[in-house]
Amino acid sequence: MKAKNSFDRHSFFEDVFAVVRLIPKGRVSTYGAIAKYLGTGKSSRMVGWAMNASHAAIPHVPAQRVVNRNGLLTGKFHFTTPTLMQELLEKEGVKIEKDTVQNFEKVFWNPADELL
DNA sequence: GAGGTGACTGCGA
DNA sequence: CTCGCAGCCACCT
């Protein structure tokens, strides 16, 4: 196939990036919430996969604010350093313990609830 | 163009 | 909370 990059056309990556960038500082969201908001619904994997390309997104996407439904920093190994994700969140006021967001229900930000 | 992969989720136990 | 199973779909080779 042609060597088409994700940026050759309007892909849902951009939609994911747009939503993630809307996450307020000190808040976090989940892949499922974003997926549902975008309509991908059950395919929350696609959100995670989209985040895989977030490093190349401009402006930068605050992927550290996106965790799985358990509040676990599942994607921290995809950052520059495995500790960067936690450090960024703590710097924003989000408490992290054992790679898990503390008070997750309180800092959770649901796009389908806030944006719609 | 078929097959493999994955930063996930929901449900049952 | 943990463990296991199945479904899900865009992207890459």
Question: Can you describe this structure?
Answer:
The structure is a single chain. This protein is mainly α. The chain has a single domain, classed as Orthogonal Bundle (Arc Repressor Mutant, subunit A), CATH 1.10.10.10. The chain is 36% helix and 7% strand. It has 6 helices and 4 strands, in the order H-E-H-H-E-H-E-E-H-H. It has a two-stranded parallel sheet. A two-stranded antiparallel ribbon has the order 3-4. Strand 3 and strand 4 form a beta hairpin. Helix 2 crosses helix 3. It starts with 11 loop residues before the first helix and ends with a helix. The protein binds a DNA duplex (13 and 13 nucleotides) through helix 2, helix 3 and strand 2.
Give me some keywords for this one:
116 residues, mainly alpha, Arc Repressor Mutant, subunit A, two-stranded parallel sheet, globular, DNA-binding
Question: What topology does this entry show?
Answer:
Layout: H1 12-21, E1 29-30, H2 31-38, H3 44-51, E2 66-67, H4 84-91, E3 96-97, E4 100-101, H5 104-107, H6 111-114
Parallel strand pairs: 1-2
Antiparallel strand pairs: 3-4
This protein binds a DNA duplex (13 and 13 nucleotides) through helix 2, helix 3 and strand 2.
Give a quick rundown of the structure:
With 116 residues, the chain is mainly alpha-helical. The chain is built from 6 helices and 4 strands, in the order αβααβαββαα.
The percentage of residues in β strands lies in 5-15%
The name of the CATH topology is: Arc Repressor Mutant, subunit A
Secondary-structure element pattern, one letter each:
HEHHEHEEHH
Query: Which geometry do the CA atoms define?
Result: globular
Indicate the structural class: mainly alpha
Tally of domains: 1
Low-confidence region ranges: 1-9
